[in-house]
C-alpha cells in the first residue's frame, strides 16, 4: 500500500490541497507569492506533485521545482511558513502519522532546491554575507 492509498487517496488529498492553496494564498507572510497565480492551476499542480510522490499513478504536468521557483525570492521563513500551514492541515484532515512523516520528509529534502536559507532565515540572495535582514530592512520583493 502506498502512502497515497494509506491516507485515503484522492478523496482525502484533493480537499486537503484545496484548503492548503486557499490558506497559502491568504497568508499574510507568503500570500504575495501567489497573487498572480491561478488558484485552480496551483491546486491541480500541488495535487499532481503530491499524489505522485506519495505513490499514486498521477502524472505531474508542472515544471521542475528549481525552474518553477527560480523567479521568486523565497526566503527560509517563507519556506517554513508554507511547511507549517501544511502541518496544520495534515492534522486537521487526519492524515496518518506515517504519511505525514513521508510527506514532510519529501518537502524538507526539496528545501535547497527552493531556498538557500536555513530554517527561519530571511536573507535575500543579494544580501548573503551581510547577515539576516532586520525588521526595518525587510521589504516585499516580487
**What best-fitting shape do the alpha-carbon axes yield?**
globular
Q: How helix-rich are the residues, as a percent range?
A: 40-55%
* Percentage of residues in DSSP E strands: under 5%
What ranges have pLDDT less than 50 throughout 5 or more consecutive residues?
A: 127-142
Count of helices?
A: 7
Structure classification: mainly alpha
**Rg over alpha carbons:** 16 Å
Mean pLDDT: 80
Description:
By secondary structure, the chain is mainly alpha-helical. It is 53% helix and 0% strand. It is built from seven helices and no strands. It has helices at residues 3-6, 10-26, 39-53, 65-69, 76-92, 97-109, 111-114. Helix 2 (10-26) packs across helix 3 and helix 2 (10-26) packs across helix 5. The model is unreliable at 127-142 (pLDDT under 50).
Secondary structure elements and their pairing?
Elements: H1 3-6, H2 10-26, H3 39-53, H4 65-69, H5 76-92, H6 97-109, H7 111-114
What is the structure about, briefly put?
This protein is an all-alpha fold.
Task: Please give a handful of descriptors for the protein shown.
7 helices, globular
Amino acid at each position: 500500500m502506498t502512502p497515497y492509498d494509506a491516507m485515503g487517496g484522492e478523496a482525502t488529498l484533493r480537499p486537503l490541497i484545496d484548503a492548503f492553496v486557499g490558506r497559502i494564498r491568504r497568508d499574510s507572510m507568503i500570500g504575495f507569492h501567489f497573487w498572480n497565480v491561478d488558484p485552480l492551476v496551483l491546486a491541480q499542480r500541488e495535487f499532481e506533485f503530491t499524489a505522485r510522490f506519495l505513490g499514486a499513478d498521477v502524472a505531474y504536468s508542472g515544471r521542475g521545482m528549481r525552474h518553477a521557483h527560480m523567479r521568486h525570492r523565497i526566503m527560509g521563513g517563507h519556506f517554513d511558513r508554507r511547511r507549517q500551514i501544511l502541518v496544520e492541515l495534515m492534522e486537521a484532515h487526519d492524515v496518518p502519522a506515517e504519511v505525514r512523516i513521508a510527506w514532510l520528509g519529501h518537502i524538507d529534502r526539496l528545501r535547497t532546491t527552493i531556498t538557500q536559507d536555513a530554517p527561519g532565515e530571511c536573507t535575500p540572495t543579494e544580501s548573503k554575507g551581510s547577515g539576516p535582514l532586520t525588521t526595518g530592512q525587510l521589504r516585499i520583493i516580487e
